[in-house]
Amino acid sequence: MKLKKRIVNFSQLAIAISLLFSCSQKTEVKEEVPAEPIDETYAVQSEKLLFNVDTLYTGFDNPWGMTWLTDGTLLVTEKEGEILIFKDDKFTGEKVQGLPEVSTKGQGGLLDIQAHPNYGENGWLYISYAKQVSEEETTTAIMRFRLDGTTAVDQEELIQSQPAWKGGNHYGSRIVFDNDGYLFYSNGDRFNRPENAQELTNSHGKIHRIHDDGRIPEDNPFVNTPEAVPSIWSYGSRNPQGLYFDKANNRLWESEHGPMGGDELNLIEKGKNYGWPVITYGKNYDGTTITEITKKEGMEQPVTYYVPSIATAGITMVTSDKYPAWKGDILIGALAKMHINRVDMDGTKALSQEIILQDIGRVRQVKESPDGYLYAVTQATGLLIKIIPIR
Q1: Which one, of 371, 79, 130, lies nearest residue 388 by Cα?
Q2: How do residues 310-343 score in pLDDT, each as one tens digit?
C-alpha cells in the first residue's frame, strides 16, 4: 500500500511540475492595439459600397495597359512607347529600356502588357503595339520579352495582324491568357474599311488565339477553312479595347467601341460572328445610317450596349472578397464619358448599371491586382488610382 501511495504522489508531483513549466512558457499577452480609424472625409458612396480613392501617381500622358509581376511590381505602359515601373504603389523613377520602336500615329502606340501566367518560372512579358511596316502602313504586333534588371531582353515577335494597313486607327488591342495558357488578343477593323471584320481572309476586326510562343492551335475554328487567317477565334468586332478572361467560369469577355452609339459588352465564344458592320446599334459619325438592322440570324447580340457611346476601354471582373457588394460584376473604363461603368451581372446576364467616379478622366484600363485591389489608369488627368473599400 505504501508503494502504491508513493507512486500516486510522484504522479501528482509530475503533473504539478508539468503544469508549472507550461505556465512559465506562456507568451506574455499583449494588449490589443485598436485599428487606425479610416478617414471618410473624402469617401465616395456608390450604390453598394463606400470607398476611398488613393491617388498613387499623377504624371501619365496616355497610359494604356498594366500588369503585376510575382514580387508585386506593377508595370504600366504609355502609348508613346514607355513602360513605367512601380513598387509598393510608388513610381520608382525607372522605365523599361530597350523596347521595340512603335508607331504613335493616330491611335497607335505601345498598347497592352500582360505577364505570362507562369511568369515566376519563365519570366515572359507580352506586349501589343502598333508596328510600322512600310512608310504608310502599320499593323498590330504581339511580342514577348524578359527583363534583365530594367532592360527588355530575349525579344521575340509572335504574330502580326495581316495585311498591314494605311491609317492609324482601330488597332485593338488587349492581351489575356486563359486557364490552359492560350493567349488571346484583340484587333480592330482598322476603321476605313469596316467590312474587314466580316472577312476571314484578314486579321482585322477579330479576336485571335495563339499559343504562348506564337504557334497556331490546331483546334482554332478556322484552321481548316481555305484562305482564312488561322489565328482567328471570333470575328465581326469593330475596335475591341477591352478583354478579360473569367477563370472561374472559363468565359472570355470583350468590350468594343461602336461608331456614334453602339458600344458593346460581348461574351466571346469560339467561331462566332459578332455582327459588325452588318448589325449595330450605332450610326455614322455624321449621323447617317450604317445599317437598318440590329439583329440577324447567325450573328451574336451584345450582353449590353451603349447609346450614346461611353467609349468602352479596358474591363475587369471583380473577383476579390474585398468588394463583396461588387463581386461578379464587370467594370468598364469609359473614355468619352470619363467614368468607370459597373455592370451588375447575374452570370452572363447584365442587370442594372452604375456610373462610378464621374469626371475622373478618360479611364483607359481598370484591373484587379493579385492581392485583390482595384486599380485604374486615366488619360488627360494622368492618374493611377487604387480603390480602397470601407464598407
Answers
A1: 371
A2: 999 999 999 999 999 999 999 999 999 999 999 9
Q: How far apart are the first and last CA of the chain?
A: 70
Render pLDDT for 81-106 as a digit per residue (tens, 0 to 9): 999 999 999 999 999 999 999 999 99
Separation between Cα atoms, residue 41 and residue 376, nearest integer Å: 21
Complete DSSP assignment for 107-173? T-SEEEEEE-TTHHHH--EEEEEEEE-SSSEEEEEEEEEEEETTEEEEEEEEEE-SS-EESS-----
Query: Can you tell me the distance from the alpha carbon of 365 to that of 356, in angstroms, rounded to the nearest whole number?
Result: 14
CA 338 vs. chain centroid, Å, equals: 18
CA gap 163, 81 in Å, rounded:
23
DSSP 351-368: EEEEEESTTS-EEEEEEE
Q: How far is CA 211 from CA 103, 120, 181, in A?
A: 25, 18, 7
Report helix, strand or coil for 235.
strand
Residue 110: what residue type?
L
**Residues 197, 190: Cα–Cα separation, whole Å:** 9
Residues marked active site are found at: 170
